[in-house]
Amino acid sequence: MLKHYIYIFLISMVPLVELRGAIPFAYAFNAQDPEFNLVLAYVIIAVGNMLPVPIIFFFARKVLEWGKDKKVIGGFFTFCLEKGHKGGEKLQQKAGRGLPFALLLFVGIPIPGTGAWTGTLAASILDMDFKKSVLAVIGGVVLASIIVGVLCHVGFGAWFGITQAG
């Protein structure tokens, strides 16, 4: 069972997948083994998802700017910078002074490209305050975990109801 907790921890750290991908795995592991603790899984997933945030905030922008002119990695690094810049600009235009709350919603709405990684990069590009950014991202991670958890609970419940009905 320990390996399942390690899997979800690692999955939650993968960019673009993050907790949105880890939570469905946790529900699947729980379906296989009812002793798999979903509450513990949520804590592990949240920690795994948040662990890269300070590194992203302080270093990702510098690394991306350094690498954008490099031959092999330049295209990908430029893409990441542009994605973070566009996301940050949209947030700033729509939110104004409510930028931390907008960041929370940006991270919390579980659609591709709006997780803790992208939100933190956008906050870094916008030169937001670190503490406000981290608190907003934590709030977004909590919101996303609730939304994804409800969807998984309903989805897995429906799936098991359909498969066991026959």
Task: Give your account of this protein's structure.
There is one protein chain. With 166 residues, the chain is an all-alpha fold. The chain has helices at 2-12, 18-32, 38-50, 53-67, 74-95, 99-108, 116-125, 130-165. α2 packs antiparallel against α3.
Question: Main attributes?
Answer:
single chain, 166 residues, mainly alpha, 8 helices, 80% helix
C-alpha termini separation: 30 Å
- What's the overall geometry? globular
Oligomer status: single chain
The Cα radius of gyration reads: 17 Å
Main sheet characteristics: none
Summarize the amount of helix as a percent range: over 70%
**What share of residues are in beta strands?**
under 5%
Q: SS-based structural class?
A: mainly alpha
| Total count of domains | 1
Instruction: Point out poorly predicted stretches.
Output: none
Number of beta strands? 0
Helix-strand sequence: HHHHHHHH
Mean pLDDT: 87
Number of helices in the DSSP assignment: 8
Chart the SSEs and their pairings.
Elements: H1 2-12, H2 18-32, H3 38-50, H4 53-67, H5 74-95, H6 99-108, H7 116-125, H8 130-165
Helix pairs in contact: 1-2, 1-3, 2-3, 2-8, 3-8, 4-5, 4-7, 5-6, 5-7, 6-7, 6-8, 7-8
